[in-house]
Q: What sequence folds into this?
């Protein structure tokens, strides 16, 4: 399963990678460490990732704007996006869902907790849900 | 921080400017007084001068009076002797008999009488006539027609000798007589009496020896007083005018510049100074002075009033300046206070912002440390030696503590990151939730929590819940080992506020540490003894103060501690 991880803090990215690997999702991970890169990757020709894990606090183009632009792009409207951030601010949560994020998940502290989150994401998005990518247009 | 504005500098020295004002006022007053005094002095000098001139004038005119009196007497004498000379020529010009002379002597009341030739030989004489009678007078009498001696004595009689020349058949002859002094005295005094008219006037005829031949007095016409010896001495010494005292009265005298012709007699007039200066004394004299004095007093009064007014205005100016200065200071103080208050608020806000940003930004690296230490622990557990496993555990503990501190710091700085929006809250419901979330701790320590109904309050439920949770958790936590923690929560209402008390039977807090316990991260115990970051009470205090209340700690009766905080009351109970 191809997953795009948008995360500017490399240590977080590595921990997330390890957690995703432990959860069995590490075979096809793509990284973007800022909003620009994320948009470029998504708007490039070729196959789209099946899931995007999007941080909100990004340098340059923020996660909020990435979300907004992705949803304004007809090709990307159905792309499953899980906001994965440390922020618990109600404003951020409301914004994410208003811009049709598919889920809002708080990034926990500690590797074990992060692993648990990774496993939960795997259980739902890999094992339970049927994604739009199963029926490409 | 002190801003020195020009206004401030001026206001700093109100005394100086006021002193200047005052000095200027005094200078003005002194100038005025000097000027007024000068003007008055000139006036006084003028007045004195004119008055002394007037007196001098009066004295001069009085001096003329003696000459006038002398002139009157002289003309009387001249008339008498000219008439006498004609008669004498007729009667005694040729042959003269003694009987003829005796008869004439009786008629003229003379004591002795003789007719002599110009060479001094006697033509005829009354019996007993001294041969040299009138001999000394002869040259004068023959030349001027008449000569009279000074007072002299012949035998026992006081007489005046006189000689009067006339034409005889054998050349110039003279009739010499010795007449009683009283005869002349009566004549002279009678003549003088007509001349003494002014008040206190007196007039005298003095002979060459200073003897009084005639006297007249306005004050006492019948018995004129004799002249003062001083006057007589002065006249004899040739002083024609001057002052002298007679019985305590100052008098002015004037003697005629010449003796009466044919005699050595002086004509003297005298008057009391007061009478002499009458026209230049009394009202005439002192009224100008009184006016001048009154004027002076008025000017002095004006000067003093002016000075006082100026001084008063200077004082007012001083007070005004001081008032202005103190007002300025007050205003500046207010401005400074406001400024420092703003600075304080800003620095508080800065500090909170700093705490927020710091703790927020610390979160990411800390997350990395926490994450990787856990990753190490998971991945390499048992693969390294036993020490490594322990080190990793310590690292994880440290990170967890740090995470706690950062969370607390964030919580502390979040307390007033937004405006307080108080709403009615049910304190009992909040206590329910608090006890529920503290359930595990309560169970673990076997604590007993009892409660009274708390009622309603106005505030933020989340924050007040945090306060109660902190206080109750502390009560459970800070107990000695082996003691069952007992916490009692109660409330009192009054004055529109609810006072919530949390009493415990814990280890208590030394009164010396009361200040410290409400400070951030201040701990009285090691975290091994009692875990925690030490921010709970600081957050609680901040929350309570935000609700307009205070949180206080007191020792509980029977051990332990009571924390009481107050918040606005809400609802009915």
A:
């Amino acid at each position: 399963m191809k997953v795009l991880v948008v995360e500017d803090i490399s240590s977080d990215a590595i921990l997330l990678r390890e957690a995703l690997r432990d959860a069995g999702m590490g075979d096809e991970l793509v990284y973007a460490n800022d909003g620009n890169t994320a948009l470029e990757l998504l708007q490039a020709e070729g196959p789209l990732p099946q899931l995007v894990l999007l941080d909100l606090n990004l340098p340059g183009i923020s996660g909020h704007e990435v979300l907004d632009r992705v949803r304004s792009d007809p090709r990307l409207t159905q792309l499953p996006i899980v906001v994965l951030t440390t922020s618990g601010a109600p404003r951020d949560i409301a914004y994410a869902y208003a811009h049709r994020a598919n889920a809002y998940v708080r990034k926990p502290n500690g590797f074990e907790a992060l692993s648990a989150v990774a496993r939960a994401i795997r259980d739902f998005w890999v094992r339970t849900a049927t994604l739009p990518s199963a029926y490409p247009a | 921080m002190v801003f020195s504005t020009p206004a401030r500098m001026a206001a700093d020295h109100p005394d100086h400017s006021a002193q200047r004002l005052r000095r200027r006022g005094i200078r003005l007053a002194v100038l005025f007084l000097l000027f007024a005094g000068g003007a008055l002095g000139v006036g006084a000098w003028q007045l004195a001068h004119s008055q002394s001139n007037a007196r001098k004038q009066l004295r001069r005119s009085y001096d003329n009076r003696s000459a006038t009196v002398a002139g009157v007497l002289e003309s009387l004498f001249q008339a008498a002797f000219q008439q006498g000379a004609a008669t004498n020529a007729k009667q005694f010009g040729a042959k003269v008999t003694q009987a003829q002379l005796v008869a004439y002597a009786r008629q003229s009341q003379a004591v002795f009488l003789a007719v002599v030739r110009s060479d001094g030989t006697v033509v005829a004489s009354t019996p007993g006539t001294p041969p040299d009678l009138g001999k000394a007078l002869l040259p004068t009498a023959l030349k001027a027609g008449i000569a009279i001696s000074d007072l002299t004595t012949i035998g026992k009689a006081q007489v005046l000798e006189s000689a009067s020349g006339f034409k005889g058949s054998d050349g110039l002859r003279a009739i010499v007589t010795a007449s009683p002094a009283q005869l002349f005295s009566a004549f002279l005094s009678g003549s003088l009496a007509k001349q003494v008219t002014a008040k206190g006037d007196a007039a005298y005829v003095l002979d060459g020896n200073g003897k009084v031949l005639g006297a007249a007095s306005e004050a006492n016409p019948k018995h004129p007083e004799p002249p003062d010896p001083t006057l007589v001495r002065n006249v004899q010494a040739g002083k024609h005018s001057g002052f002298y005292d007679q019985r305590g009265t100052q008098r002015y005298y004037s003697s005629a510049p010449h003796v009466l012709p044919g005699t050595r007699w002086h004509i003297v007039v005298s008057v009391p100074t007061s009478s002499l200066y009458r026209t230049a004394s009394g009202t005439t004299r002192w009224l100008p002075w009184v006016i001048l004095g009154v004027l002076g007093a008025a000017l002095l009064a004006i000067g003093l009033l002016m000075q006082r007014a100026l001084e008063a205005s200077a004082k007012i100016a001083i007070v005004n300046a001081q008032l202005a200065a103190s007002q300025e200071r007050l205003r500046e103080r207010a401005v400074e206070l406001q400024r420092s208050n703003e600075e304080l608020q800003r620095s508080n806000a800065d500090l909170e912002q700093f705490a927020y940003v710091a703790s927020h930004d610390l979160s990411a690296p800390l997350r990395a440390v926490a994450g990787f230490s856990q990753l190490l622990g998971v991945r390499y557990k048992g693969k390294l030696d036993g020490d490594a496993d322990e080190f990793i555990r310590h690292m994880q503990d440290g990170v967890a503590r740090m995470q706690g501190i950062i969370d607390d710091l964030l919580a502390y700085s979040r307390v007033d990151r937004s405006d307080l929006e108080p709403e009615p809250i049910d304190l009992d419901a909040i206590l329910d939730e608090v006890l529920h979330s503290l359930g595990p701790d309560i169970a673990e320590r076997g604590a007993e929590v009892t409660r009274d109904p708390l009622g309603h309050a106005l505030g933020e439920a989340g924050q007040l819940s945090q306060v109660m949770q902190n206080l109750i958790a502390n009560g459970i936590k800070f107990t000695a080992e082996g003691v069952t923690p007992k916490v009692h929560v109660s409330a009192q209402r009054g004055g529109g506020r609810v006072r919530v008390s949390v009493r415990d039977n814990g280890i208590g807090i030394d009164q010396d540490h009361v200040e410290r316990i409400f400070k951030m991260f201040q701990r009285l115990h090691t975290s091994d003894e009692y875990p925690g970051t030490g921010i709970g009470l600081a957050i609680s205090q901040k929350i309570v103060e935000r609700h307009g209340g205070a949180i206080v700690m007191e020792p509980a009766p029977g051990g332990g501690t009571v924390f009481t905080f107050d918040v606005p009351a809400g609802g009915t109970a």
